[in-house]
Amino acid sequence: MKQDIFQAIADPTRRAILTLIAIQALTPNAMAEKFDMSRQAVSKHIKVLYECDLIKPEHSGREIYYHFNAKKMQEFDNWLAQFRQSWETQFNQLDKVLSTIKKQKK
């Protein structure tokens, strides 16, 4: 069953894995060393990220290195962009209200 990208990034460990491999491709064993969990547990997280196309494997001899799939994350960011304008406008309006209140108290 293919996972949903929101399910994938909802988990803090999976977000941490994405952060790690955004800097450098890593093997599952190398990832497991960064967390207080077994390699098998890390592999389950990798499976979800792979099913969501957020990471890409690259075979090198007997090792598999996982790379961050920036293109997929860009698609996600493009989807979020449609909402970003809305919340930025609302935050700017809130900043103006708070600034006005602050000036009135002086």
N- to C-terminal distance: 60 Å
Residue share in β-strands: 5-15%
What fraction, in percent, of the residue positions are helical? 55-70%
Largest sheet: 2 strands, antiparallel
Rg, Cα atoms, Å? 20 Å
Helix count, per DSSP? Answer: 5
The CATH topology of the largest domain is Arc Repressor Mutant, subunit A
Strands of the widest sheet, in order across it, are 1-2
The CATH architecture of the largest domain can be named as Orthogonal Bundle
Low-pLDDT residue intervals, each spanning 5 or more residues:
none
Mean pLDDT: 93
CATH level 4 superfamily of the largest domain? Winged helix-like DNA-binding domain superfamily/Winged helix DNA-binding domain
Structural class: mainly alpha
Shape summary: elongated
Domain HTH arsR-type: 1-88
GO molecular function, one term: DNA-binding transcription factor activity
Protein name: Winged helix-turn-helix transcriptional regulator
Pfam families: HTH_20
Q: Which structural traits does this protein have?
A:
single chain; 106 residues; mainly alpha; Arc Repressor Mutant, subunit A; 2 domains; two-stranded antiparallel ribbon; 5 helices; 11% strand
List the helices and strands and how they pair.
Blueprint: H1 5-10, H2 12-23, H3 28-34, H4 39-51, E1 55-60, E2 63-68, H5 70-105
Antiparallel strand pairs: 1-2
Helix pairs in contact: 2-4, 3-4
